[in-house]
TrEMBL record:
Highest taxon of source: Bacteria
Pfam families xref list: F420_oxidored, P5CR_dimer
Keywords for the protein's UniProt record, in alphabetical order: Amino-acid biosynthesis, Cytoplasm, NADP, Oxidoreductase, Proline biosynthesis
Name of the protein in its database record: Pyrroline-5-carboxylate reductase
UniProt EC number: 1.5.1.2
HAMAP family associated with the record: P5C_reductase
Function: Catalyzes the reduction of 1-pyrroline-5-carboxylate (PCA) to L-proline.
Family label: Belongs to the pyrroline-5-carboxylate reductase family.
InterPro entries: 6-PGluconate_DH-like_C_sf, NAD(P)-bd_dom_sf, P5C_Rdtase_cat_N, P5CR-like_CS, P5CR_dimer, Pyrroline-COOH_reductase
Organism: Paramicrobacterium agarici
Organism lineage: Bacteria, Bacillati, Actinomycetota, Actinomycetes, Micrococcales
């Protein structure tokens, strides 16, 4: 794996998603000049991160000026706090950001407009939507430029998120739609696995056997797709022998409106994302 060199980074709120990105930044092939500074509210969350090489971790409850310390010299600032906390945080950090810093949002539903309205004009904003497989280096992140970000800023943000997986660049008006696919997508997959596992148990398998059968099938099918030059449809047809058992199962799914259900589900997620954005 080729070495990646990044400038100093601050992660404000190294919880679930911020922590996932941090896990990519501390990989051996990633060199962060100037180090990584992270903040969390409590010492219980901050202390384990301080043991990571190249990471300085601050607890807000112990260090009142933790945020300012984390921001000093940081070229990339990742905002990882919960969406409702973002506006107040941006007001607090506006004067501490380095000129030319890139502020990257991973907060769902908070628009670039909100960020840019609360931050100095000499700071650029990029909106990102990573997903939970980033925790294991298999993430898919959508990134969208703000009105003040340059191609170089976007390239730097891409490099950060490539440490935990793949990156797709889109305009901001597609970020909410992207969130319904890659952002929420792992939940859809887990739900399918959950229900498929229940079906296996109903067929008489133990929970352990069912987990092996179902989890292995999903993992194997995904790996086959990744390594194949065939589309998912072609691979499905390849498994589905005419008048065979798989064809009967697929027919039941089609008759139940399985395809339409995915459209309805992602449409519902998109409507909610837009509601959140409107209120940000």
């Amino acid at each position: 794996m080729s070495e990646t060199t990044l400038p100093a980074i601050a992660i404000l709120g190294a919880g679930s998603m911020g922590g996932a990105i941090l896990s990519g930044l501390v990989q051996p092939h990633v060199n962060v000049d100037g180090g990584i500074r992270v903040t969390n509210r409590t010492a219980a969350k901050a202390e384990p991160l301080d043991a990571l090489e190249g990471v300085t971790s601050y607890a807000l409850e112990q260090t009142p000026d933790a945020t300012a310390r984390a921001l000093a010299g940081a070229k990339v600032v990742l905002i990882g706090v919960k969406p409702h906390m973002v506006p107040d945080l941006l007001r607090d950090i506006a004067d501490d950001l380095e000129p030319g810093a890139i502020v990257v949002s991973v907060a769902a539903g908070v628009t670039v407009e909100t960020f840019e309205s609360l931050l100095p004009e000499n700071v650029s904003v990029i909106r990102a939507m990573p997903n939970t497989p980033s925790h294991v280096g298999k993430g898919v992140t959508g990134i969208a430029p703000g009105t003040r970000s340059s191609d170089e800023d976007l390239a730097l943000a891409r490099a950060v998120f490539e440490t935990v997986g793949e990156v797709v660049e889109v305009p901001e008006n597609q970020i909410d739609a992207l969130s319904t696919i890659s952002g929420s997508g792992p939940a859809y997959v887990f739900y399918l696995i959950e229900e498929f596992t229940k079906a296996a148990i109903d067929k008489g398998f133990t929970p352990e056997q069912a987990a092996t059968l179902v989890n292995g099938t999903f993992a194997g099918a995904t790996e086959l797709l990744m390594q194949s030059d065939k589309t998912p449809e072609q691979l499905r047809i390849q498994v589905t022998s005419p008048k065979g058992t798989t064809e009967q199962a697929v027919t039941v799914l089609q008759q139940a409106g399985f395809a339409e259900t995915f459209t309805k589900a992602t449409d519902a997620a998109l409507a909610r994302a837009r509601e959140l954005a409107a209120g940000s």
